[in-house]
Design goal:
The protein is an alpha/beta fold. Among the domains are: 29 residues; 300 residues, Rossmann fold (3-Layer(aba) Sandwich), CATH 3.40.50. It is 45% helix and 10% strand. It is built from 21 helices and nine strands. Strands 1, 2, 3, 4, 5, 6, 7, 8 and 9 form a nine-stranded mixed sheet that branches. Helix 6 links the parallel strand 2 and strand 3. It starts with a helix and ends in a 6-residue tail after the last helix.
Length: 493
């Protein structure tokens, strides 16, 4: 009888453990051991913080040069690799995570399985006050991989160093991304051309700053959605999962768990953080939708000025392609920022237009086309490849290493298009395509300043200084004056 009694106690304890630890987990689908049951888990599309390999990218090495053609030149625009995202209140945010860690299951009713709670309890706070917006370990790997794959797929483009130019904005994360890409295309001796006019032109457009970027009323639907039922319920559920009072979890705490707790750690080394497990896939999709709402208005098709104010970059791309068409073959590799990539894709009609997103559209618009996680992840890129096919020059476009079909008549095989027809499609011959002063000026002083910058740009990007050369041009002096504005954006992407 004693043996039966002991066995009964043991069995009873096991049942109790199962009821406490597993039944609530299956109700919320939130035990990481169950990830295999959901093909989308772990969901790692963290909008602008998405790692390149998680974006759904393709592999350019699988591309075969069409028969009878040879690669002639390329214009390549990329976002830097994964990086740190510290903000002015980063210490407070990590302190909040420490507080939540110390108070796990204070209610005694935590609805996460014990394994995931234990992982959070073992979480190591990696914050330090000197953290900068620099390239991470994962970011280096992403850009090394990009360089290796492009040079492997298109070795003909990288043999003549005199026909290669590498550009960057003046940030560590973009300079290092350019260097990693460049060295892995076997061109480590080339100088990097620093040109913030082309690659970081947002702060120059005063009208955009005043009317869109600094105006929170531009994205009321995003605010409405973030304050609505979806996020209120999400906050309540997260509190229950962690076993803390609901007053501990508000919208700000959700963002801290999402960015500092989850997405930023993934961006450091590619490994999941235990804080990611406080979210369901549906939670993460709701956050992604909220942030896409804002970017569609501020960097996409929501407002014409948002994407048109990046037209200096577009004009440089088209001029470079036209030069290749005319026989002046130089390949250009630009490394910049996520908002720049979004604007280039939108202004060149490589993103499908959609109606602006509304709060009440969720979840019906989960299958929307505009997803920053896909269009502009860390390491995201668009490549314009010109092929010589007999006497004709043909263009192919690749986004994140995947061929992009253009809606032009009579495309030849492999999605190649007549280069002149493609330039026409992109607006090369449209005299009103980039009226910079009309778009961006607020007064005559602004007009004079922007005219000087625009004129310097028209005269040639090669007037920019190189990373190894300290000489400054008029553009650099003007951009130094604008540095106070520029610094305001350094944390965005």
């Amino acid at each position: 009888m004693k043996t039966i009694s002991a066995m009964s106690v043991y069995a009873g304890n096991r049942i109790l453990v199962y009821v406490i630890c597993y039944l609530p987990v299956y109700a919320y689908g939130l035990c990481s051991t169950d990830f295999g049951k959901d093909p989308e888990s772990p969901y790692r599309k963290y909008q602008t913080t998405t790692a390149y390999d998680d974006s759904g990218r393709d592999d350019i090495t699988l591309y075969d040069v069409p028969t009878g053609c040879k690669p002639l030149g390329m214009v390549f625009v990329a976002r830097h690799g994964s990086r740190h995202r510290p903000t002015s209140d980063e210490a407070e945010k990590f302190a909040k995570l420490e507080s939540l860690k110390q108070n796990l299951n204070v209610t005694g009713k935590a609805q996460m399985c014990s394994n995931d709670l234990q992982r959070i309890q073992l979480w190591d706070n990696w914050y330090h006050p000197d953290l900068k917006t620099n390239l991470t370990e994962l970011g280096y790997r992403e850009m090394i991989g990009l360089g290796k794959r492009f040079s492997q797929a298109l070795p003909q483009l990288f043999t003549d160093r005199n026909r290669l130019k590498y550009y960057s904005s003046d940030y560590q994360r973009t300079r290092e991304s350019t260097r990693m890409f460049m060295e892995n295309t076997h061109n480590s001796s080339k100088s990097i051309i620093i040109n913030d006019t082309i690659i970081f032109n947002r702060p120059i457009c005063d009208r955009y700053l005043e009317e869109i970027f600094y105006d929170d009323n531009i994205v009321p639907e995003k605010t409405k959605f973030a304050q609505g039922e979806v996020f209120v319920e999400m906050a309540s559920n997260i509190a229950k999962r962690l076993g803390v009072p609901e007053s501990e979890i508000d919208i700000g705490t959700i963002d801290t768990l999402y960015l500092e707790g989850c997405a930023e750690k993934v961006a450091v080394d590619g490994k999941n953080s235990p804080w990611c497990h406080v979210f369901t896939t549906d939670d993460l999709k709701a956050i992604e939708y909220r942030d896409d709402m804002g970017d569609y208005m501020k960097h996409g098709y929501g407002i014409e000025l948002s994407y048109k104010s990046g037209c200096l970059t577009k004009r440089f791309i088209l001029d470079a392609l036209k030069n290749i068409s005319d026989g002046n073959v130089v390949s250009h590799f630009l490394n910049g920022h996520g908002w720049l990539l979004l604007r280039v894709l939108a202004d060149m009609k490589l993103i499908e237009k959609e109606a602006p997103f509304k709060a009440e559209d969720y979840p019906e618009r989960l299958n929307r086309k505009f997803k920053v996680s896909m269009y502009a992840p860390n390491g995201g890129n668009v490549a314009f490849l010109v092929n010589q096919c007999g006497v004709a020059k043909k263009l192919q476009v690749f986004h994140n290493e995947r061929p992009v079909p253009l809606p032009l008549k009579n495309p030849v095989s492999h999605g190649m298009l007549d280069l002149k027809a493609a330039l026409e499609y992109f607006g090369y011959n449209d005299p009103n395509d980039c009226n910079w002063d009309d778009m961006c000026s607020l007064d005559r002083v602004t007009t004079t300043r922007n005219s000087a910058i625009n004129e310097a740009t028209v005269q040639g990007i090669d007037s920019s200084r190189t990373e190894s050369g300290p000489n400054k041009t008029l553009k650099d002096t003007i951009l130094d004056i604008l540095s106070v504005f520029r610094n305001a954006f350094m944390h965005y992407d």
